[in-house]
Predict the 3D structure of the following.
Amino acid sequence: MPRLNKAARDLVESGALAHLVTMNADGTPQVAIVWMGVDGDELVSGHLMATQQKLRNVRRDPHVVISFESDKANPIGMRDYLVVRGTARITEGGAPELLHRLAQTHVGPGTKFPPMPDPPPGFVMRVAIDRISGSGEWEAKD
Amino acid sequence: MPRLNKAARDLVESGALAHLVTMNADGTPQVAIVWMGVDGDELVSGHLMATQQKLRNVRRDPHVVISFESDKANPIGMRDYLVVRGTARITEGGAPELLHRLAQTHVGPGTKFPPMPDPPPGFVMRVAIDRISGSGEWEAKD
């Protein structure tokens, strides 16, 4: 399994938004922008509602593609970006804790998230990495 | 055909990067990040090389999905974003002129682009809009 190097992990954890592509039942792609973090060698996102289209899509077809913009650019001014192709699975629980952790970078330090009392345990999407591409040096070489 | 409202057109023309999803021959999605602009009611991107995977994909299957991040956020801190589902066609020529125009916002005013003498005329991808979604108010109501 390819592994993200430090630059890629730093990008994901920096608060860069994840453009998550999942496949609809009719074979067309669906795109949603979500917060993702790194957990071990996987990418993870938290979801409070089981009914989200992206979760239904992943349960039927676990293949996903995720893209992130970098703040860095190449010498001619085109921005670097990371594309991760992966296989997702959905696990139950843990969404509020993960969302709270990600909100500290995506919204700001000290943010209480989700902004509700007693959020449901929800679901965590875990993406095992199948391929790393994009523009930039993102793959661990060892 | 749905039309982008002023906020959506301003976002695209602001230098927001386009995450462009095209479909590979095997039915999997391909993601590339490109510069896009608005031309009439369509989205346009410029490409110097005919061999790009995204152009080959569009010639075989014209359905594309494009997502853009906004700098604005909703009241709980989640960033707005625009998703455009469309039908693309490729026209010959005009890529250097379009890329030069887009470089003025993506790289900076006064940028010479493409950074080469005598660039090839290339290709322009024109995306007719089939559906507008995402998080935010992006569709023209009239």
In short: The longest helix of chain A spans residues 95-106. The mean pLDDT of chain A is 96. Chain A has three helices and seven strands.
